[in-house]
Fold this protein.
Amino acid sequence: MTRMIDLRSDTVTKPSPGMRQAIFNAEVGDDVHGEDPTVNRLQERVAAMLGKEASLFVPSGTMANQVALLAHTRHGDEVILERGSHLFYYEAGGLAAVAGVQPFLLDGRRGIIEAEQVEQSIRFADVHLPPTRLIWIENTHNRGGGTVFPLEKLRAIRSVSLNYSIPLHMDGARLFNACVAADVPPEEYSRQVDSLNFCFSKGLGAPVGSIIAGSAEFITRAHRYRKMLGGGMRQVGILAAAALYALDHNIERLAEDHKNAKRLAGALAELDGVKVVNDPVETNLVYFDVSRTGMNTLELKSESAERGLLVDPISFTTMRAVTHLDVSADDIERAIEVFRTIFKRPGK
């Protein structure tokens, strides 16, 4: 049976043999008591590599976002963020239901917002208005198409945040994709923000986990909210070991995923009726519109799966394909042939 090629997300990766061995060998303790040595080593390493005072291991990226939001704000506050941000779009309303804050949504260009937009959105002091307590960016920006947040634009937004004494947080779920694509060290991105988080379970290939970093005071607050949300874990060094392995082995290779994504995008753009939405592709995400092919995305999903290719709709007209460490260059060529076969079918 032909192996399925899975382009649904970079979260579908399986732990490699080396990562499994690291998990097997992990030294563990009770992390709620601060006694898991592997978790402690991971948190110390991430804080050092980001140039922050402390960091906190959490089960998921969504929990990382919610914990960071809670640690920065109070009920009734307002956060400035781009309209397509994961925090607003994909977290089941947690921004309102969990943190009790409201968003001030900005229209970005492929997810990237400008310092001028941010400054013009800050509320002035008035009892009728919610106070602006947080500025939020996403790097890379998922719905923007895996867009890398330009460092100079981030620096400009940082100047605004400092001028108005409003914290700036980076949802860096795919931070290392941005670092590799832009050739920017993670510490340089981190230097521009008060706090940030990134995922181990996306392009880095670990099975579970994200991490939040910031000042020691911020992480103390975050620790309480992690517990409140049910994120206190026990002998979790088995997962921290996978994260440490990912940091050692799976960062530089992200360039391969980017190369594969660009190859896929180039081939899709040559097909009649297919439009690559996020052209040029910057990292490992490819969004493409099929509205002019005579097919909708549900039909394409079904037909692709029948031919050994898994890909998910984002809307009725747009698909997303994601490259990752379990997809080789040969797999991409197979995926291209599947799309060519489907879109060249008579009547399409």
